[in-house]
Design brief:
The chain is an alpha/beta fold and 190 residues long. The chain has one domain: Rossmann fold. Helix content is 44%, strand content 18%. The protein is built from nine helices and eight strands. It has a six-stranded parallel sheet with strand order 2-1-3-4-8-7, sandwiched between helices. A two-stranded antiparallel sheet has the order 5-6.
Length: 190
């Protein structure tokens, strides 16, 4: 099986979004920020496992906005119950991407207990009907437009290579100015 690079996937996504809110944590957050530093980003401080819950809250609170969650497989494992909740309330405006590299990358690159976990199967079993999996960038690029236009909830696994373990600057990621920019953008209706 071929694998993609997270930054390549995020570049494809960045070329195809407009005014969606993007929720991301840890490794996904840092790579997304490097590619698309924009007011409509929401980075969750110390929220490993909660990206899907934060995204769900925003999707329910702002039903007129599309919300995209950029999650990691290790992070989602910490909150699998969110998939059942997402399926039950079925927000039409929520798209949940999970970067699967079989690693708790942000916490030192430790392997997941079961690297062969079928996240798409878990999401489908939780009741999410629109489930997808991508391991080749050409397929992801071909389908991204329709995914972003699909009625949610949408769940998509991005099978990626493990990234490099970084010394991330969390103070920069979580600085108050970023949250204030998000508040202002939402208040302005952008």
């Amino acid at each position: 099986m071929s694998l993609m690079k997270r930054d390549e996937c995020f570049r494809v996504l960045a070329r195809n979004i407009t005014d969606e809110i993007v929720v991301a944590t840890y490794s996904s957050a840092f790579e997304w920020l490097a590619i698309a530093d924009r007011p409509l980003n929401h980075f969750s401080h110390g929220a490993m496992g909660l990206a899907s819950s934060h995204g769900l809250g925003l999707a329910l609170g702002l039903p007129q906005r599309r919300v995209i969650v950029l999650d990691g497989d290790g992070s989602l494992l910490m909150n699998l119950g969110s998939l059942a909740t997402i399926a039950a309330v079925a927000p039409k405006n929520l798209i949940h991407f999970v970067c699967q590299n079989s690693s708790y990358e942000a916490n030192g690159g430790h392997p997941l207990p079961n690297p062969e976990l079928d996240f798409m199967g878990i999401a489908r079993a939780a009741g999410i009907r629109n489930c997808n999996s991508f391991s080749e960038i050409s397929g992801f690029e071909a389908d991204i437009g329709s995914l972003l236009r699909s009625q949610g909830p949408v769940f998509a696994v991005l099978k990626i290579h493990e990234g490099h373990i970084e010394n991330y600057d969390y103070r920069d990621l979580y600085k108050p100015e970023r949250r204030e920019a998000l508040r202002k953008a939402l208040a302005a209706g952008r």
